[in-house]
Design a protein that fits this description.
It is built from 8 helices and 8 strands. About 40% of the residues are buried. By secondary structure, the protein is α/β, with parallel strands linked by helices. It has one domain: Alpha-Beta Barrel (TIM Barrel). The chain has an 8-stranded parallel sheet. The structure holds 5-O-phosphono-D-xylulose and cobalt (II) ion. 5-O-phosphono-D-xylulose (5SP) binds near residues 8, 31 and 141. 5-O-phosphono-D-xylulose binds near residues 139, 142, 173 and 176. One of its GO terms (molecular function) is D-ribulose-phosphate 3-epimerase activity. Its cofactor is Fe(2+); Mn(2+); Co(2+); Zn(2+). Belongs to the ribulose-phosphate 3-epimerase family.
Length: about 210
């Protein structure tokens, strides 16, 4: 299991220190939650945050774009140094085209599903994506409780991946801690995002504990 610390729970006034701590602790990538105040009721980072972090770490930068009309932002995040760009199925009327545009910018493309959105809405785009992110909370805020019903969704997606001979990575996001990571690992998730759990204590100890339970 790869672990992607979410900087949503880091100290916004000292992001570089938080990033250095999780990198030293062996994180696999950095998860950057971009919120536009429309798609979700919160405001966070923009492309300039990615641009500022890029020279501060060698970790891959993964942007979780919680924004309406994501096409507006693709070029900006690509140019800023994003390695993986994840867009919500619910945020665009033209998902197939949006994913093609991300790939055309030489950025890995991923799609995200809210808890209430069925897996079959991705049937046509699965061959296009490098990654599928299953939200295990409603998006917008860190520190929420994991939704246990999402474990079956992860398992169903893993089954579909095998049946169709595809090789996208499966990621989970929301409420991941030492109590919840075991179930999603068993269900077939490859990458777990964790924010409040990692930054709510000593990041190195918390990361090691997650890896031990995964
Ligand atoms: O995308 C989101 C929230 O919308 C997440 O990436 C959170 O940042 C995860 O936080 P925790 O649930 O791990 O505290
Ligand atoms: Co996220």
């Amino acid at each position: 299991m790869k672990i992607a610390p979410s900087i949503l729970s880091a100290d916004f006034a000292d992001l570089a220190t938080g990033v250095a701590a999780v990198e030293a602790a062996g994180a696999d990538r950095l998860h950057i939650d971009v919120m536009d105040g429309h798609f979700v009721p919160n405001l966070t980072f923009g492309p300039d945050t990615v641009r500022a972090l890029r020279p501060r770490t060698s970790l891959p930068l993964e942007v979780h774009l919680m924004a309406d009309d994501p096409d507006r932002w693709i070029a900006g995040f690509a140019d800023a140094g994003t390695d993986i760009l994840l867009v919500h199925q619910e945020a665009t009327a033209h998902l197939y085209g949006t994913l093609q545009t991300i790939a055309a910018h030489h950025v890995q493309a991923g799609v995200v599903l809210n808890p209430g959105t069925p897996l079959n809405t991705l049937d046509e785009v699965l061959p296009l994506v490098d990654q599928v992110l299953i939200m295990t909370v409603n998006p917008g805020f860190g520190g929420q409780h994991f939704l246990p019903a999402m474990t079956a969704k992860v398992a169903a997606l893993a089954k579909t991946r095998t049946a169709r001979g595809l090789n996208f990575a499966i990621e989970v996001d929301g409420g991941i801690n030492d109590q919840t990571i075991g179930d999603v690992t068993a269900a077939g998730a490859d990458i777990a995002v964790a924010g409040s759990y990692i930054f709510g204590g000593d990041p190195a100890q918390r990361l090691a504990k997650l890896e031990g339970r995964a």
